Amino acid sequence: MKNNTKKIIIFSILFIVALIYLILAVFIFQSPNGIIGCILCMISVWCILASAVKLFQYTTGRSLADAIIDAIIIVLFS
After folding, report:
1. What's the rounded Cα separation, in Å, for the pair 51 and 57?
2. CB proximity list for 32: less than 8 A, separation 6 or greater
3. Do 32 and 26 form a contact (C-beta atoms < 8 A)?
4. Prediction pTM value
5. Higher per-residue pLDDT: 9 or 1
6. Which one of 3, 10, 54, 78 has the minimum C-beta count within 10 Å?
7. Tens digits of per-residue pLDDT, 21-34?
């Protein structure tokens, strides 16, 4: 496998695991009590965002800044 394909698979698995943990912790077990639960939920949200950004970069081959600038241009001028 190519190096990018391995990274896409790893970040996809990280995204899915973090999303499942967040859904289970908040909605099913209702466990974010106290500082430890809050930190664990914040870490899972951070992992979701970071893996989504990395997946976007590896699948499209563009940087996130270029995509944000393109989205701003589309919103402002369309």
Report:
1. 10
2. 25, 26, 38, 40, 41
3. yes
4. 0.73
5. 9
6. 78
7. 888 888 887 777 77
